[in-house]
Amino acid sequence: MPLKIAMIGAGSVGFTRGLLRDILSVPELSDTEFAFHDLSEHNMDMVTQLCRRDIAANGLAATVKATTERRTALAGADYVLCMVRQGGLEAFQTDIDIPLKYGVDQCVGDTLCAGGLMYAQRTIAALLDFCKDIKEVSKPGALLLNYSNPMAMNIWACNLYGGVPTIGLCHGVQGAHHQITRATEQWAKASGLLAEGEKLHRKDVDVVFAGINHQTWCIKAQWRGIDLIPQMHAMLSAVEDFQKGEKVRLDVLKRFGYYSTESNGHLSEYLPWYRKRTGEIMNWIDFGSWINGETGGYLRVCTEGRNWFEKDFPNWMAQEAPKFTPEARSEEHGSYIIEALETGRVYRGHFNVVNQGHITNLPDGCIIEIPGYVDKTGINMPVIGDLPLACAATCSASVRVQQMGMEAAVHGDVLLLKQAMLHDPLVGAVCNPEEVWQMTDELLVAQAEWLPQYASEIGAAARRLDEAVANGTRVKTLETEGAARQHTATVEKMEARAEESRANAQAADKGKMTVTADAAAA
Questions:
Q1: Half-sphere exposure of 519 (CA within 13 A, CB side)
Q2: Element (H, E) at 467
Q3: What number is the average pLDDT over the span 460-486?
Q4: pLDDT, tens digit, for every residue of 9-55?
Q5: Which residues are CB-neighbours of 323 under 8 A, at least 6 positions away?
Q6: What's the CA gap between 148 and 74, in Å, rounded?
Q7: What is the residue-averaged pLDDT of the chain?
Q8: Which one, of 344, 40, 511, 325, lies nearest residue 48 by Cα?
Q9: How far apart are CA 64 and CA 32, in angstroms?
Q10: What H or E segment, with its residue span, contains residue 157?
Q11: 20, 185, 212, 506: which has the highest count of C-beta atoms within 10 A?
C-alpha cells in the first residue's frame, strides 16, 4: 500500500509544492497518496493544479486529493505535514502593526516577541484540533511534522496537550551551516590551507548546533580536524557581506563566543539589546535583504509573494514542470525523515524535540533544537549536555516566555498571556507594564475571530480599552511606521522583475529573498 501523507495548510505554495517534490524524488515513495487540506479552497486549488501537473510531467503514480474537510484529509494518514498560517496575512498584519504603536519594532514577529506570542495563541488552538482528529482518524502512531511557527510553542502544545508525537522542522541550521562553510573556505584559502580553485561543501565542515528554535548555537565546528570555534568570529567577520548584513549576529558572537543560527533580523527581536531604541536600530541592520532587520520585512515579502502568485498563476501553469531528481531536492528535513523511517537510510539533521535530559541546563519538557539521527528504528536524539552559560541564559529567558505563551494559548488565560508579554526580552525592554497590558488587550480584540479559546474574554478586553479612553487613562501610542519600514511593492511594480517576484512567491525559505528594487524607506 502506498503511504498517505496529509498536508495541512496546503495552500502554501512554497512549502507544499517543494515538499511534494522532495518526497517524490525518493524512488520508494513515488506512488505516495497526498491529501491536501486548507481553509482557503481558492489557494489550495491553485497549488493542487500545479502539483498534479508536476506529478504527471514526471510520469509518477502519486496522487493528490484536495479537500476542505480536515478529517477526510487526515483519515488513514501515515504522516501529517503542517504548514498553516492561522489567520493568514490579515492577522499577521496586526502582529506587526499593533506592537509597533507601542514601540515594539519587529522584523519577523513569528517566533517570540509580541507577534510570536499572538501567533501562538491563534495556531495552538488550531493545532490541538488537528491533534484530536489525528488521534481519531489517522493511522495509529501517525507522526506530525510541523513547519508552522512559532515552532517551540506549537511543538510543546502538541506533545504535552495534543497527545500526538510531533517533531518541529526548520531550515535555520542549514542556513548558518552554509555561512560557516563559506567563511571557512575564505579563511582556509587566505591561510594557504586550500587551493584558490577549491570549493567546500557544507558536508565538509562538521557542526553541532544546540539550543532552542531560532536561538540554536554552533557549539562545535571542525574542518580537517581543526577546531573552528576559537576563530569563528574572525572568520565570519572577514566575509564582506556579513559585515553589512549580520551585525547583530557578529556582535553576539563576539560577546558570547558562539554563532546563532538565525538571521540578523530574527535574532535582533529575540534579545533585549538591539531594537529597544528606535534611533539605534539602523546601526544594526541594512537593506541588502529584508531579513537583515527591516521593520515588518517578513510580512512584506509574504504579502508580495501571495499577490504575485495570484496574478502570475497562469504563467506558472504554462511553464515547463520541474524534474523530480535528487539534485533538485531541497534541504528541508521532512522528506529525509520520511525516507529514513520508511527505507532505513540513515539521515542526520537538527530537529525540534521535547527536552528529556538532552540539554542538561535547560528545563526538561521544553522544546529544544539539537542534532538527531533517523532510520527504521525511529528518531534518535543524543545527549548534548550543558550549553555554554551565556547561550543557556538567553535560551532560558525565552523558554519561560514560551511556556507561559503556550499555557495561555491552551487555556485561554489572558493574565498569563500578559505576563508572557511582560517577560518577553524585547517587549520588556521597550514597554512598561501598563503598556503591555493595553497592547495585549488591543491584540486580543483585533484577532478575536481566530481566538476561540478567548471567546469569553474578548468582550472584557474591549471594555477595558473603552474605559481607559473614557477615564483618560489610556496609554498614548505612537504614530510610526518603524525605524526601517519598506513599502510593499504593487503587482505592477513587480512585473518589471517578474523572475525575482516568481522566486519570492515559490520560496519556502524567504530569508534568501533580497529587498525589492523600488522599495524605499518610509
A1: 22
A2: helix 458-471
A3: 96
A4: 999 888 999 999 999 999 999 999 999 999 999 999 999 999 999 99
A5: 58
A6: 17
A7: 95
A8: 40
A9: 9
A10: helix 151-157
A11: 212
Q: What percent of the chain shows pLDDT beyond 90?
A: 93
Q: Which residue has the higher pLDDT, 511 or 169?
A: 169
pLDDT at residue number 513: 53
- Per-residue model confidence (pLDDT) at position 515: 45
SS3 annotation, 293-362: CCECHHHHHHHHHHHHHHHHHHHHHHCCCCCCCHHHCCCCHHHHHHHHHHHCCCEEEEEEEECCCCECCC
**Between the CA of residue 225 and those of 159, 168, 206, 228, what are the distances in Å?**
38, 31, 9, 9
- Quote the Cα angle for 340-343-348, to 5°: 20
List, in order of start, the domains of the chain with CATH numbers. Answer: 4-91+117-171 (3.40.50.720)
pLDDT score recorded for residue 516: 46
Dihedral sign for Cα 370, 297, 280, 96, please: negative
Question: What does the pLDDT average to over 50-66?
Answer: 98
How many CA atoms are closer than 13 Å to the CA of 400, on its beta-carbon side?
Answer: 10
The whole-angstrom separation of Cα 85 and Cα 96 is 15
pTM: 0.95
Q: Which residue has the cell 531579513?
A: 291
Q: How far apart are CA 397 and CA 211, in angstroms?
A: 12
Strands 63-67 and 33-37: parallel
Nearest-angstrom CA–CA distance, 257 and 220: 11
> Each residue of 357-401: pLDDT tens digit?
999 999 999 999 999 999 999 999 999 999 999 999 999 999 999
Give which of 24, 86, 83 is closest to 329, Cα–Cα.
24
What residues are labeled active site?
Answer: 171, 270
pLDDT band at 520 (very low <50, low <70, confident <90, very high): very low
Distance of alpha carbon 374 from alpha carbon 343, whole angstroms: 10
- Cell numbers describing residue 27: 524512488
Confidence (pLDDT) at 514: 52
CA 282 vs CA 225, 274, 294, 484: distances in Å: 39, 10, 9, 7
pLDDT number for residue 148: 97
pLDDT of residue 511: 61
Residues whose CB is less than 8 angstroms from the CB of residue 450 and which lie 6 or more positions away in sequence, other chains included: 86, 87, 91, 122, 125
Please answer whether residues 278 and 102 qualify as being in contact, where contact means their C-beta atoms are separated by less than 8 angstroms.
no
| Helix, strand, coil share of the chain (percent; to 5) | 55, 15, 35
CA–CA dist 482, 296 (Å, integer): 9
β-pair partners for 47: none
Rounded Cα gap, residues 369 and 376, in angstroms: 21
